[in-house]
Amino acid sequence: MRYLLVASALALAVAPVGAADKDKKETPSKAVQTFEVPYRLTDTKHVMVRVKLNGKGPFNFIIDTGAPALILTEATNKKAGGKADGSWSTFDSLEIEGGVKLDDAKGIAIDPFQLKGMNAMGLAGVELHGMMGYNILARFKIEYDFTETKLKWTPVDFKFPDPKRVEIDKNGGQGGLEMIGSLMQMLSAFGGIKANFAVAPRGFLGAELEANKDELIVKSLIGGGPADKAGLKVGDRIQGSKGKNFKSADDLLEVVKKLPEGSSLKLNIKRGDDTKDITVELGKGL
C-alpha cells in the first residue's frame, strides 16, 4: 500500500493512455453509448464527479489517473456497505452521475493522507470521499472539454489487469506520509477552521438543451422524466424562470443545481407563437 498511495498524486485527470492503448479496441460504434457525465472543478481544481455505491450516496470522487485503483475512505466504504474481498472491497453497483453504471466494481478502503488533510481544512470546497483510479477509468475513453459542463465517457473493449496483491497497513502504511493528514487536521483545529460540507441530491430536469441564437431549446427529453411529465416538448424554447432570462444551458443549470429533489420549477416557454408557463417537479438526481 506504501507504493500505491505515494504514487497517487491528486492530479488533474486525462483519459488513460500508455502502452496498453494498442490493446484497447473500441466496441462497434453502433453498440456504443456515450455518457455525458456532469463534473465540477473543486477549489483545488481537481475534476470531481458524483458517485453512488450500492445505491448509497451521493459521494464526491476526484478523477485521479495517478491512482491504480478506486480508493475510498473507510467511512465511505462502511456507509456504502462494501464487502470484504481480501484487500479489496466489492460493490454490487457503482453509478456515476450521467448514467454510467458498473455491476462489478471494487476498490480499496483506506484514509489517504491527501483527502484526510484536504477535508480537515476544507481546501476543496466540498467533502471528498475518494479517488477514482485505473481499474474504473480504464473501461472508458474520456473526453475533456473544460468549456463544457460535462465529460464524455465512452465504454471501450479493453481487458485490463487489476493491480496485483495489495497489502494494507493502516499504521504507517503510507510511507509515513499519513502524518501530513493528521497534522493538517491538528492545524485546522488550532486555527478554528471547520469545514462545512453539504451533500444533498440535487434536482433532476431530464432534458437535453442547446443554445441557438440566444434561445435555449429543448433538444431531447428522457421519457418519463420530470420535464416529459410536466409537458415540455422537443423544440420548446425556454425563455426563463422567476424573472430571469435564459440564454444558455448554464443559465438554467445555475438555477436547477441549487434546488433539491422534489422542488417545483416554473419555466416560461415559447411553443410556436404561443407563450406559456410549465411547472416541472424536479426528480432525484445524484
Question: What features would you describe in this structure?
Answer:
The chain is an alpha+beta fold and 286 residues long. 18% of the residues lie in helices and 35% in strands. The protein contains seven helices and 22 strands. The protein has helices at 2-6, 74-80, 113-121, 134-137, 178-190, 226-230, 249-256, and strands at 25-26, 35-38, 40-41, 47-53, 56-63, 70-72, 83-85, 88-91, 94-96, 100-102, 105-109, 130-132, 140-143, 150-157, 203-204, 207-212, 215-221, 237-241, 244-245, 264-271, 274-281, 283-284. The strands form four sheets. Strands 3, 4, 5, 6, 7, 8, 9, 10, 11 and 12 form a ten-stranded mixed beta sheet that branches. A hairpin with a 2-residue loop joins strand 16 (207-212) and strand 17 (215-221). Helix 3 runs parallel beside helix 5 (178-190). The longest helix is centred in the middle third of the chain and has 13 residues, at 178-190. It is elongated and about 65 Å long. Residues 1-24 and 165-193 have low confidence and may be disordered.
